[in-house]
Amino acid sequence: MILTQLGKYKINAWLGGGQFGDVYLAWDTILEREFAIKVARMREQDIVMLKDEAKLLASLNHPNIVRFFNIDIIEGKLVLVMEYIKGKSLRDMLTKGKLPCDKAIHYMVQMLDAIHYAHTRGVIHRDLKPENILITSDDTVKITDFGLGKFVREGSLSASIAGTPIYMAPEAWRGKFYQQSDIYSAGVIFYEMLTGKPAFLGDSLDDIREKIFNSYPPKVTIFNPKVPAHIDKVIRKAIDKDPEARFNTADEFKSAILSPGRKTGVAVEVVKSPTEVFEEEITLTPQQEEIINSDAPQILVLGGPGTGKTVTLIYRVAKLLREGEDPGSFLIVGFTRRAVDDMRTRLEHIIGKELRNLVIDTVHTLAYRILKHDGKRLGFKEDFSIINAWHVLRSIAKGEELSRLEAMLERIELYKANLISPERAKQLARSEWDHECAEIYDKYQRALKDKQMMDLSDLIYYSVQVLREPDIGTHYRDIYKWVFADELQDLTPAQYELIKLLAGGNIFFTGDENQSIYSWRGGMHRFRQRVERDFPQVKVYLLTNNFRIPKKILNAAQTLVSKIEGETHPSISLRETEGKIELQSYENESEEAWQVGAQIEELVKKHGFKFSDIAIIYRINAISSVFENTLSSFNIPYMLVEGETFYARREIKRCIKFLERLTTGSYQGMVDFIMWVLMLPKTYKKCFGIKNKQIMLKGELPNTLDKEKLTSYLERFNTILREPSQFGVSEILEIVLIDSGFVPKLKVAQEISDINRAYNLEELINAARSFGSGEIREFLNHIALLEELQVAQWGKDTVKLLTAHQAKGLEFKVVFLVSLTDDIFPLMRATLDPDELDEERRLFYVALTRATEHVYLSYPRLRYTRKMKPSRFLFELAGL
DNA sequence: TGGTTCCGGTTTTTT
DNA sequence: ACCGGAACCA
User: Could you tell me the distance in Å between the CA of residue A696 and the C1' of nucleotide B5?
Assistant: First the structure.
């Protein structure tokens, strides 16, 4: 039925529809004016006429609220008469993804003004959602449908669907509405404006409800690093489950957004990925489109850095998902945790929903899961532990010289990376050294298995063994119809084999032989032949358009790798800027560091770069110290991207050790641990003793200690020691780190390093919370696989100091590639072996191609008193 | 035997 | 400062 006339209203156009009803553009034939009228799609008996309420609504008059004129029942239909606004709804704007941060804030401020105005007049909106927020062409916000929910009879079908659940506060689900319920909805809308993703998503209503009641969405800054750090906290407060804990008024909410300053402590943003790919709409090239839409079941995509390999991979996955392929039949493997998290975020962004059944993981995580499930076939129980190879190796090869032991460990890793069993290693041994290594390897593997332990490379090695069992392999291959692996050049043969064994039909690989920088630990840098041999039907595509790297830099980098024998596939820069690449030599190291500092200062002060646009990249960690010192004397904020994994940090190690002790029941070091969390000086050590796995106080306690408080805390601590398994991991960590006062005290400490420790520990607690319930042992394994939580703080505006290896996969506007002498880059020992020299060359290539605008190359002429030769790679670069 | 204290030795080029 | 293992004690 098409409406043309409704009472005195002539219907001119349909403006939109929603759950409540349809909105029409109408002409009042009596007043001769345009109105928007909303005709409710509901039965008359479900409508309550609240005269006073209608009057109240009609009295609202605010620039950011759609004027409400009248409510009427015409021909048995509820009709709402409102001001007609030309504009789009926020919902329409959000379908194109997130809004720029300043725009989102601009809208938010107007919304909160409107909400505050209504609240002071006693009107609660009750159903704030993007559909109800109109935006005119001059970016004025107009909120519509204020308080209309009230006209629907409680308990009617319409009432129960009136609210849009994903924007509804938890208490609103129970039918309670406060002003804070609007604040909550505004917070959730703000979240969506900034990220382009709803804060709560789920497959079903129950699923959503569960999340709204029990969880908080990831931080905004994870999806959009450009958002100022304080916004995360503001949103978190606005959407607290407890209405009391939210902002009291919309005005308070507004000022919190606008004034980031009034806070104590140091704001550390936790941003897992520095990528800002979502900023622009991605335009795909015809080359990429061809790959994405290819019918070939087996695909290999080759292309240099910045040619969009990963994007192509993701868009192909997205395309297949849109065509209705089951997310559960996909397996996507990435090289690092960061790469994996990045891919998932991008993919979910494109698809617009969470993809929980879809497996995107690092090879190690994948392997861990396989072995937990099927490791029993090899004699491993479900609760095997992941350990650090070094300690065990040392204990079984006592008396070995450390340098030899180190070499042996390297050899063992290579055996496993190439799927060579201890028996085979013995057969292959030619020299005395080979025999020794093979012997130790055998011993080491037996020792680990005895203790139900595995190191990281065992995860891969044993998974391959398990998957070679026909029944198990078939089982997985039946599941994974679509297998994708990124960065093939850095995978070891064992990892590649693992992926192959899982692939049940279609494969999609990407890689770049020129970016292979891990062959020293088994990465197979010549992967193309191998893929073509294993998959004779494979279709090979080349990506030759470069989106990231400007011409000059790209040319220099490509000239460098063209010296390497073998195939290269150069790309052509699509960037408009030429780019800049400069070489400087300096008297010595400190002069070099000083000049770099001066240039950074100038780039920031005169040329508008941010510190976070800049990276200093070097070959080895030892180089960093000169630069650290100089940067601090320049007052340039910097961040050292440590080689240390999160897991290796002192405070984290200590906690992990503690958890480990809980699982083994050997409580050595407990007294030290509890003194550490209670921040007691060592002198009090004699006051504590351990008896029957319980910490006791003994002897005279100094007056400085509050005996009662201490005793009651020890009581709690001891309950953990008695029955660790009664507690969840996060519970244990909370009692030990937070309730002890440790983290709270660290947070307000003077030292930045203490504050950072506090954040690291909080990060650990978060990891435990999101890990959920599970054995302590399992949590420890889980942590061991999270290689790089350390990238917390990426969002801070600091210059990054990092090695060329660490720089892989990152990009910066300005790169200072420093200390380019012929003994450091390439490393002296690599110059003797042509293969190793090539790897150094590729590493140099990787470092150069991190830059999207400027590259500054430099080297010191003297190191200490020794004369240095410039890196041979400098001579190879074009135009220098 | 299990629990506690004492003693001595400490990986780096790149994950 | 920290950890593993030997030595020592109930």
Answer: 16
